[in-house]
Amino acid sequence: MKKFRLITTVLFLLVSTVSQTQVLKLGAKAGLNYANFSGSDLQTDAITSYHAGLSAQFKLGDKFSLQPEIIYSTQGASYANLNQELTQKLGYMSIPVLARIHVAKIVSLDFGPQFSYLLSKDIDFDTDVNEFDFAAAGGLTFNVTENLFVQGRYVLGLTEISKNANVKNSVGQLSVGFTF
């Protein structure tokens, strides 16, 4: 928890020390998750969930920017066990730090690491869930207007979500947001 507070504090201090010019754009976003587990022999079904949060885009040149975000994201999966549907939903505070390459005026390619901390779990069975999740994120951003954007992103978990199973998070995200 102390590491999460430190990362959040550094992010907000960084945002507050940069002047509100064309170098910095703050924003908010929300959208749908299509989440599942990967890396296991267990046949799971994806669940539809949500995410919402804040972003800051630091312009580092005409074609490059850095975008840290802080997002609440629900993830998980469901599967059938003895004629019973079991669902596991995990609520994470995620901090992706994305490099954005602006390939056109309205399109950017986004990629980078994502650090997540488990805030809640709603599971139908007893298991140990790791508090930290590390992932790789990549996707596209389309700037519909100067202040409105649509993002598509895939987040591939690189760490196991449980000490007892070889299972990782796998999440497709579709977001709509605005900058101010």
Automatic annotation (TrEMBL):
It comes from Flavobacterium amnicola. Residues 23-161 form the Outer membrane protein beta-barrel domain. Keywords: Signal. This is PorT family protein. InterPro entries: Beta-barrel_OMP_2 (IPR025665), OMP/PagP_B-barrel (IPR011250). Pfam families: OMP_b-brl_2. Residues 1-21 form the signal peptide.
